[in-house]
Amino acid sequence: MNIDIKEVLELHNKWLNGEDGGCRADLRGADLRGANLRGADLRGADLRGAVLRGANLRDADLRGANLRGANLRYANLRYANLRDADLWGANLRGAVLCDANLRDANLRDAVLVDGSGAPN
Questions:
Q1: How many domains does the chain fold into?
Q2: Domain for residue 96, yes or no?
Q3: Which of 15, 84, 108, 119 is within CB 3.0–4.6 Å of 22 for a Cys-Cys bond?
């Protein structure tokens, strides 16, 4: 499946602003490996099971986004706003979380380190 991420973000922005023709971003299971989503406004987006390995999400707004089971391994989430995001079971090994806002985020069963307890 080929995704036009620019179009998805434009329609999502319209949805966020209550404009006609807008729709919530549905990126369930999408392969967004290495995608440049720096500064993207993905508030409330559905990213369940998405592959965001190595993606650049620096400064992204992911408030209230559904990231259950997403692969965020080695993703850059520096300064990202993940407030109220659902990260249940997400893989965050090696992700850059410096200065990310994780307030009230659901991190239940999320993987942050490898099995040895050492950062990966």
A1: 1
A2: yes
A3: 15
Domain around 107: 26-120
**How sure is the predictor about 120, in pLDDT bands with cuts at 50, 70 and 90?**
very low
Polymer length in residues for the chain: 120
The answer to whether position 59 is within a domain reads yes
Residue 11 lies in a domain: no
Task: Compute the average pLDDT of residues 21-31.
Answer: 98
Angstrom distance (rounded) from CA 41 to CA 27: 13
Q: Which amino acid is at 111?
A: V
In a domain, 91, yes or no: yes
Question: What are the φ and ψ backbone dihedral angles of 57, each rounded to 5 degrees?
Answer: -115, 25
CATH number of the domain enclosing 73: 2.160.20.80
3-state secondary structure the chain: CCCCHHHHHHHHHHHHCCCCCCCCCECCCCECCCCECCCCECCCCECCCCECCCCECCCCECCCCECCCCECCCCECCCCECCCCECCCCECCCCECCCCECCCCECCCCECCCCCCCCC
